[in-house]
TrEMBL record:
GO terms for biological process: xylan catabolic process. This is Predicted xylanase/chitin deacetylase. The lineage of its organism: Bacteria, Bacillati, Bacillota, Bacilli, Lactobacillales. InterPro entries: Glyco_hydro/deAcase_b/a-brl, NODB_dom, Polysacc_deacetylase_ArnD. Keywords: Carbohydrate metabolism, Glycosidase, Hydrolase, Polysaccharide degradation, Xylan degradation.
Length: 291
């Protein structure tokens, strides 16, 4: 009996030792599992934070470049985020779309007004500029305002020129007059002599210059204007405008006008089509009086 009791007591002791050992092992295993689980969660968290940073950087790049492919890339990265982050960045991208839409709208209004400068067009441009109120739109607004102000100055100069012409017309109304005009120049061999003769006689004239010749002899163009003569446009290189497309007509006329304006510091107000040949599209391409 005594031996049985000792054996039973030893078995119980062994059982409790085994139980404690198993418990300890379970605690260790649970601890290790928790550690690796936490490590996995941390890695996922770091990876997601990196994903969020990439989406934010893509959004910032889209704001800076305004390119369609950058905007599309930003949307793709944002769509992969959790709802909270996605909602915030989606809102920012929607705002960018609104900004670009407003800027484009105002751009179109200002560009259209610039094509045919008028008081009405300038007024429409100034009203449109008031739509651009956000800090993001500031640089666009300043650039467009600069264009509008330049157009206003051109309009003022044209109005002054129109008043001057009206005064001259009133001054010489009902009088017999002769207008001297010279086409196709300047010619480096003959135009300087002609300018001297006109100046000595105190007789002004109108020179319908070719842009190609003006480019070759800019100093003569400047002298023509400085001596009190009118320098007008005869297109770039004397093509028959009726044989050209509307875009080609516009290029022929405007390239000459722009160069003459640059050389003389004055705006061209008259235009003479080569061969006296023109049609409706020529008149549409040309903003000035045809002679």
């Amino acid at each position: 009996m005594k031996q049985r009791r000792l054996k039973s007591k030893g078995a119980k002791k062994a059982f409790w030792k085994l139980t404690l050992l198993i418990g300890a092992l379970l605690i260790v295993v649970a601890g290790v599992g928790t550690y690796y689980y936490d490590q996995g969660v941390q890695k996922q968290k770091i990876a997601y934070e990196k994903q969020v940073d990439e989406a934010r950087n893509a959004k910032d790049k889209a704001y800076d470049s305004r390119k369609a492919n950058d905007i599309e890339q930003a949307h793709k990265l944002i769509d992969k985020l959790h709802v909270k982050d996605k909602t915030s960045l989606d809102k920012s991208m929607s705002q960018l779309t609104n900004y670009l839409s407003e800027i484009d709208k105002v751009n179109q209004i200002v560009a259209k007004a610039h094509e045919n400068i008028s008081e009405e067009g300038i007024k429409s441009s100034e009203e449109a500029l008031e739509l651009l109120k956000a800090p993001y739109e500031k640089s666009d607004k300043e650039a467009l305002a600069k264009q509008v102000n330049a157009d206003k100055q051109i309009l003022i100069e044209r109005q002054k020129e129109a008043e001057r012409i009206a005064n001259v017309q009133n001054q010489y109304a009902n009088k017999k007059l002769i207008a001297l005009t010279f086409d196709d120049g300047p010619n480096p061999n003959t135009t300087p002599q002609l300018l001297k003769i006109l100046s000595d006689a105190q007789v002004p004239a109108t020179f319908f210059a070719l842009g190609k010749q003006a480019q070759a002899c800019p100093q003569i163009i400047k002298e023509e204007a400085d001596r009190g003569n009118e320098v007008a446009s005869h297109t770039w290189d004397h093509k028959d405008l009726v044989t050209l497309s509307p875009d080609q007509q516009k290029q022929e006329i405007e390239s000459a006008n722009q160069l003459i304006n640059k050389i003389t510091g004055k705006n061209v107000t008259l235009f003479r089509p080569p061969y006296g040949s023109y049609n409706k599209s020529v008149l549409k391409s040309n903003k000035f009086k045809c002679s």
